[in-house]
Each structure stands twice: as structure tokens, then as C-alpha cells.
Amino acid sequence: MSQKILMQADYLLKWGEDLEIIPQGELVIEGGIISYSGPACERNEEFARVIKGNNKLIMPGFVNTHTHAAMSLFRGYADDMPLKEWLEQRIWPVEAKLTKEDIYWGTLLAICEMIRGGTTCFADMYFYMEEAAKACLESGIRASLSQGLVGLDPVKGIASLEEGKKLVRNWHGEGEGRITTMLGPHAPYTCPPDYLQKVAKTAGALQVPIHIHLAETRGEVEESVKMYGKRPVELMEQIGLLDQKVLAAHCVHLTQEEIQIMARKKTAVAHNPGSNLKLGSGIAPLAELLQNGVLVSLGTDSAASNNNLDMVEEMRLATLLPKGLREDPTLIPAVEALKLVTVNGARALFLEEGIGTLNEGSKADLIMIKLNSSHLHPLHSVPAQLVYAALSSDIELVMVNGTILMEKGDLKTVDEERILFETGKISSRLVS
Q1: Same domain as 366, residue 250
Q2: Phi and psi (nearest 5°) for 145?
Q3: What is the signed CA dihedral for 114, 381, 328, 83, rounded to 10 degrees?
Q4: Confidence class of residue 1 from pLDDT cuts 50, 70 and 90?
Q5: Span 43-67, mean pLDDT?
Q6: Longest C-alpha distance within the chain, in Å?
Q7: What is the chain's alpha carbon radius of gyration, rounded to the nearest angstrom?
Q8: Do residues 134 and 268 both lie within one domain?
Q9: 326-335 pLDDT, tens digit each
Q10: β-strands 33-39, 19-30 pairing
Q11: Distance CA 131, CA 70 (A)
């Protein structure tokens, strides 16, 4: 159990109905839970540790709502290609060589990067996910995990669905609740409607959400219309998938009608601007989604298509792209961008109340950012500096569930040198 900790900083950021910025703020953390969140005050009690953040800021940790963590093994292996060719010619052939041990080490590699970048929680969809769960359990990070399901082959599809169910049974709620699970049908183009109906029924029975790629490319939409007479979101509504809790990744090519369907069905979106740009997939209609009441969060996608897991970069892209596309600098203001990577991320993963907020009773999932760098000076606006000027390297401390995972550049729960060594060997073997 975590010790009683007092944390102080020049600024404390937390979420209620709106963003609250408290100068000279402090947190008291007991058993991984925040028992006090507010202005600094006189205290007579004793603490196991006092962390003083002079020239620093405390805020909720970032929530990355779409990754394929172990694909960090393929960073830089397949670049400057369209998604279809990228998958069929480079990624799927090398994925066929992956072992369980590869997934364990590849996930740890991603976790190192995410912790350094201030990510305290991430959603992952891939293979051999029990190995990914072990990596999450050991590292102390929070994660929502789903076994990737492909239903093109009926026999293999049912087998992979059984693997998904096994992950839910074995891992949901593990690590003092840090690990949660979803079912992860890859996409409508790899999972036919009858298979997706089975997945939806299973998700309802298990009471877990669904994590799926949706409307990522123009070609995907055209193929859906050709095969089923419906666009992807329309098809998902027709077969009943959206009657479940759904996290839909990408959602780049949407009509106004589809956006309204997603709002009505309370479908959450994981917006991945960096990956969508690099793969030439397009730019999701973020402003329109938000204006219609759709819950939008941010993800990085994998380091094979991005090529990093940097949520500060994603946050900046998310706010700048709509401004440029619509020639309207008022779209997605800095405060909204901060919401996308914190409280919206937790809600998009259907996590319990109190993650991504830093209120009293919240989980102590937080980051401390140093402010005394030239690129953050002078500090006229805290939200603006965080979104438009900050770097992930400004993050000095990362905590999950009251446990410090990184402090002053030192990773506390993982052996980064060993991870780099092991993943170097694995990567060489996979691409040889």
C-alpha cells in the first residue's frame, strides 16, 4: 500500500465541471487516493514523504486511448506507405513471427517511453495480451487491454474470441484495479457483421466495452459501401455493435449523419492525429465531433505508424489541425486540448470516476512538470504553455495509484537498460 505523501507545486491543475488552476496548490495522497486537493495550508501531521515542486506544476497524467504497444518493436521499419500496403506488405508478415516473449518485451519498451512522456494510462489492442498484462502489472502503469480479434476465418475467429474472453476473466481488475479489459475486434474489414454481432453479445454478457478501428481510411469506407451498402458507422449501428460501450479508434471519414449516430449512441472516439497524418489517412473532424457532443480522447496509435508515443505532441496536433483546416484560430482552445488527454481519456476508457481529475477521492495518477525552462518563460497562461510550448522532456515525475514510476528521469519500476537490450535482439530477429 502506498505511503502518505504530501505534494506541493506552484500550480495544481484539476478537473471539476471546468479546469481549475490553483496557485501554490498541494495534494495529500493516502493509499493511492487523493485525500486533499487544494491550496497549500499549514499542517501538523507527519508524512512519509514531502515532495516540494518549486517552479513546477502538478496535473493529471495523460491517458493514451489507442495503442498497439508491442509494435514499438517495428518503429522505423515500415515508413512512408499507405495503410493497406503498410499492413499487407510489411506489418502482417513480420507480425506472424511474433512470440509471447516478444510481446512482453515490446510492451515494456512502449511503457518506458510512455512513462517518460507522462502517460499514466493507456489502451492497448494486440496479440498475446496476457503477456502485455504482465508487463503492465510489473511496471505499475494503468492500462485497458484487449485481445485483437480477426473474424475472417470462422474457426480462427471463434478461437481468438475465446482468447479475448480469457483475458477478461483472468486480468480484469488486477493490479489493485489498474488493469481493465475490453474486447478488441480489429475493424469491420477484418471482422464480418455476423462475427461482430457475436462480439457485441459477448461484450454485453461480460459487461466490458469494445475497442475497434472505425472509418480510418477512405478505402475502408468505399469497401464497406460496396459490400454492405452501408458506411462503417452506419453498419455498426445496424448490427447493434453501438448498443454496447464502444471506443472507436480513428473515425477519420465520417458524415454528419454518422457523427450524430455516434453522439446518440454515446460512442467514444480515440483521435490519432499523428498516425493518421503519417499514413496519409486524412484528418478526423475533431471540431465537428466535439460540437455534436461526441466524447473524444487522444491516442498515439503504434510507434510503427507514428513513430512515437508522445501525448504532448498529439495534444498539440489535435488543437492546431482544426485551426488550420477551418481557418479558425478559436477552434479547440488550449483548455479543451488538455481535457482530451486527461479526463476525456479516462471517460473514453469507461474507467471509474476519479481518474484523470485530481479531485479529493481521485486516484493519484499524476505528473509533475518543471516550468523553469526558457521555452516556458514567461508564463502568461498555464494552459497555453502546456499545449503550445511544453515538451514531454519537461515532465519530471510520474505517479500512478500513489506509486512513483519516474522521478527526475529515473524510471523506478522497470529496468530500461535490460529492456533496450532484449528488444534490440528481438527486433533484429523479426526483420531479418
Answers
A1: no
A2: -110, 140
A3: -10
A4: very low
A5: 96
A6: 70
A7: 21
A8: yes
A9: 999 999 999 9
A10: antiparallel
A11: 10
Contact present, 298 and 67 (Cβ < 8 Å): no
Dump pLDDT digits (tens) for 364-377: 999 999 999 999 99
> Cα–chain-centroid distance for residue 392?
15
CATH number (domain holding residue 386): 2.30.40.10
Mean pLDDT score across all residues of the chain: 96
Average pLDDT of the residues in 298-323: 97
Residue range 188-247, pLDDT digits in tens: 999 999 999 999 999 999 999 999 999 999 999 999 999 999 999 999 999 999 999 999
- Same-domain status, 188 and 39: no
Range of the domain at 93: 62-348
Note whether 137 and 278 are same-domain residues: yes
The predicted-structure confidence for 393-424, as pLDDT tens digits, reads as follows 999 999 999 999 999 999 999 999 999 999 99
Cβ atoms 283, 244 nearer than 8 A: no
Which CATH number does the domain housing residue 77 bear? 3.20.20.140
| Interatomic CA distance for residues 225 and 234, integer angstroms | 10
Considering the domain boundaries, does residue 431 fall inside one?
no
Q: What is the pLDDT of residue 432?
A: 81
Neighbouring C-beta atoms of residue 214, cutoff 10 Å: 28
Question: Within this chain, do residues 39 and 77 fall inside the same structural domain, yes or no?
Answer: no
Tell me the β-bridge partners of 249. Answer: 213, 270
| CA atoms within 13 A of residue 265's CA, in its CB half-sphere | 23
Distance of alpha carbon 52 from the chain centroid: 29
Q: Does one domain contain both 98 and 241?
A: yes
Considering only CA atoms, which of 147, 149, 145 is closest in space to residue 175?
145
What is the reported pTM? 0.97
Q: How far is CA 330 from CA 287, 333, 336, 387, 424, in A?
A: 10, 6, 11, 14, 45
Quick one: cell of 76? Answer: 522505423
> Looking at the DSSP assignment, which residues form a beta bridge with residue 269?
248, 296
DSSP bridge partners of 3? none
3 state SS of 191? coil
Best CA proximity match to 115, nearest among 75, 62, 72, 65: 62
Number of domains composing the chain:
2
Q: Which residues contact 320 (CB under 8 A, 6 or more apart)?
A: none
